[in-house]
């Protein structure tokens, strides 16, 4: 069917080209400066300031006691989690009888990462992370407060228009939505102060535009719906008050896993290797690997797992759904924190607990809390509601890269492997970005989602390079400056 449509279009367009004697020309990316230069130069007083929210791994983490980086700088001294003495400082603390939000340590986020500093063959390298978003905003005349106050760039009086929200991505997205609420209150006061200095008068209502990559979109969506509310301890949902929507004009989500990603489950169950073992041993790449013992303490990763109802995890024999939110399955198959070989990691993370059996019980309790919290968080976002008309939800997603969609699990051993792939950006499926509830069911016309999206843009790019596509830049600039 699609082949016939394509042939028809070719014949019609081809005939039109012949009739008009047109010549095929090379199509180049648009000159964004020429398109938006005038609009970007107009720093009118009602223009919305912008907040950039990175995804998981997108903020630099530093231990405030030692001053050493935990994540984001791997070209010098840093806390390597693969070293026994550092595991406890990189992992989140675990304690029975304490809620996840009450488990504190000395690690904090200091800046959002536009580049990730690593070493390859001993040579310092900066891998672009969120530079694409910042460069796009720079073309729009949005100036970054963080870079200006560091003295990196002299923006004059205009630098209050753009802010990067750095956060501890190990912690629950609910906690970070609460921090986002505080951040926005702080930046609103800052913009008011700057507005008086620049324009000599008070500004009325201030609303922000948010550009959020990957997991950052989940934080923003929760904030729009619930403001800074925590999840109720009884397992119910927080009050839907749209408190955050009162401060936001539009949210642009880029590659957000609105229905999760299979890779989150794989990383929790197996650990994360950023480079092959031989490259680590030879010192080819400086970025360390993260064990399941360390990753298993991070509530945010569980919140990124796909929904069970979407049939992301199935029995390899019967094709029946396997519930990966059941702590019993993690214990039965030795996944994640329950891996026998992670006992040495638990020794390091829980070094103050002398009894090994007790350490395992603490880990099991932490796993149970993380799984429960993840399900509750997902239900809070999956509830279908219509947002206030004054806030717009937009999505940019990839759909040209084969992306893991389904994992088959051997129930006798717990061994699993991805057996089905679908269109996406290599990390997030197209259907997950859309929050499409048809997944795992029979076909039905039109997307069925808990989100009401004002527009969607699909790009033929992977998860990170989407932000470097001129089509991304062109459309984001239009939304921010001219729509």
Task: Describe the model.
The structure is a single chain. This protein has 483 residues and is an alpha/beta fold. Helices cover 34% and strands 16% of the residues. It contains 16 helices and 14 strands. The strands form 4 sheets. A 6-stranded parallel sheet has the order 7-1-8-9-11-14, sandwiched between helices. Strand 12 and strand 13 form a beta hairpin. The protein is globular and about 65 Å long.
SSE topology string = HHEEEHEEEHHEHEHEHHHHEHHHEEEHEH
Radius of gyration: 24 Å
- Output mean pLDDT: 83
**Helical element count?**
16
Main pleated sheet:
6 strands, parallel
Helix content: 25-40%
Major beta sheet, strand line-up: 7-1-8-9-11-14
Low-confidence stretches: 1-20, 117-127, 150-156
Shape: globular
> Which range does the strand content fall in?
15-25%
DSSP, total strands: 14
Structural class: alpha/beta
What distance separates the N and C termini? 36 Å
């Amino acid at each position: 069917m699609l082949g016939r449509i394509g042939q028809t279009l070719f014949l019609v367009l081809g005939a039109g080209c012949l009739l008009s004697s047109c010549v095929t020309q090379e199509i180049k990316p648009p000159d964004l400066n020429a398109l938006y230069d005038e609009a970007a130069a107009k720093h009118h007083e009602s223009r919305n300031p912008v907040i950039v929210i990175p995804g998981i791994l997108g903020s630099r983490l530093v231990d405030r006691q030692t001053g050493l980086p935990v994540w984001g700088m791997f070209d010098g001294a840093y806390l390597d989690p693969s070293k026994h003495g550092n595991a406890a400082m990189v992992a989140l603390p675990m304690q029975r009888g304490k809620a996840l939000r009450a488990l504190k340590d000395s690690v904090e986020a200091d800046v959002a990462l536009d580049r990730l500093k690593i070493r390859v063959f001993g040579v310092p390298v900066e891998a672009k992370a969120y530079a694409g978003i910042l460069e796009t905003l720079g073309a729009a005349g949005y100036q970054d407060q963080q870079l200006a106050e560091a003295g990196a760039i002299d923006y004059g009086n205009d630098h209050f228009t753009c802010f990067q929200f750095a956060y501890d991505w190990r912690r629950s997205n609910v906690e970070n939505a609460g921090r986002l609420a505080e951040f926005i209150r702080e930046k609103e006061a800052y913009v008011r102060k700057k507005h008086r200095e620049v324009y000599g008068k008070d500004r009325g209502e201030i609303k922000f535009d948010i550009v959020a990559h990957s997991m950052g979109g989940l934080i923003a969506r929760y904030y729009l719906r619930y403001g800074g509310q925590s999840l109720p301890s009884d397992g119910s949902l927080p009050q839907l008050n749209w408190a955050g929507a009162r401060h936001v004009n539009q949210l642009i989500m880029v590659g957000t896993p609105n229905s999760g990603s299979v890779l989150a489950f794989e990383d929790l169950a197996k650990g994360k290797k950023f480079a092959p073992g031989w490259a680590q041993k030879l010192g080819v790449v400086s970025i360390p690997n993260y064990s399941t013992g360390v990753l298993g303490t991070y509530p945010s990763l569980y919140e990124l797992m796909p929904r069970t109802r979407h049939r992301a995890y199935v029995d390899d024999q019967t094709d029946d759904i396997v519930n990966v939110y059941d702590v019993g399955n993690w214990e039965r198959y030795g996944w994640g924190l329950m891996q026998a070989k992670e006992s040495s990691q638990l020794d390091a993370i829980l070094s103050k607990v002398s009894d090994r059996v007790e350490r395992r019980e603490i880990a099991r309790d932490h796993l149970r809390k993380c799984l429960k919290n993840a399900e509750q968080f997902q239900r809070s976002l999956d509830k279908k509601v219509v947002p206030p008309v004054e806030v717009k939800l937009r999505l940019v997603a990839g759909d040209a890269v084969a992306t893991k969609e389904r994992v088959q699990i051997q129930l006798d051993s717990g061994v699993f492997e991805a057996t089905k792939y679908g269109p996406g950006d290599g990390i997030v499926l197209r259907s997950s970005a859309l929050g499409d509830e048809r997944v795992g069911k029979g076909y039905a016309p039109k997307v069925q989602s808990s989100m009401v999206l004002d527009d969607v843009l699909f790009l033929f790019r992977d998860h990170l390079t989407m932000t470097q596509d001129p089509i991304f830049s062109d459309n984001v600039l239009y939304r921010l400056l001219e729509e």
